[in-house]
Amino acid sequence: MEFQRQQAEEEDKDDLSLPDLPPLPADPRWRVAHLPFLSAVSFALLLFAASIGFVTGGPASALGASAGVMIVTVSFTMSTLVIAWADTVRPALLMPLALFTYVLKYGALGVVLAYGVSTTWPGKNALGYGIVAGVVVWTAVQAWWFHRVSRPN
Q: Taking 70 as the threshold, does the pLDDT of residue 109 lie above it?
């Protein structure tokens, strides 16, 4: 009788139980605290890129340079928001969703650049420069921000 009861208890146990997860931070806003500053820097870069594009190549280059910066700003913001959401909802989703958004983002950038190379549009070079400038500036400012925040006092 005792053996049957133990066997029934073992069958009732869930073999696929999840491990205990660490508690989530009380305030999850730290994951996106850098976005307002990065958005302001990106807007300043957009104005700078449009100005340089206009001076060097006219309205088409101004549009291309500003579009390049805007593409990077939107795609990096999307990645940040998806990653922050996944980390607050279920940290186990973080890696798959981060990889998915990066593949989607860089795939879209690749399509834009591949299409841009094949056109005769006069702003295509400025579009490429805007994308490169956006990636470099966004990455540098984000690295600076997190270094500043994580630095011990």
A: yes
| Nearest-angstrom CA–CA distance, 135 and 128 | 11
Extract the tokens encoding 91.
Answer: 């940290």
User: What distance in Å separates the CA atoms of residue 53 and residue 66, rounded to the nearest whole number?
Assistant: 8
Task: Return the residue matching tokens 């279920």.
Answer: 90
d(CA 72, CA 138) in angstroms, rounded, equals 8
State how far the Cα of 44 lies from the Cα of 5, in Å rounded to an integer: 71
Residue carrying structure tokens 């806003």: 29
Structure tokens at 113: 């650049």
How far apart CA 145 and CA 65 sit, in angstroms, is: 25
What's CA 64's distance to the chain center, in Å?
Answer: 22
Mark residue 58 as left, alpha or beta (left: phi above 0; alpha: psi -120 to 50; beta: remaining): left
Could you report the per-residue pLDDT of 7-61, keeping only the tens digit for each? 666 665 555 666 666 666 666 777 888 899 999 999 999 999 999 999 999 999 9
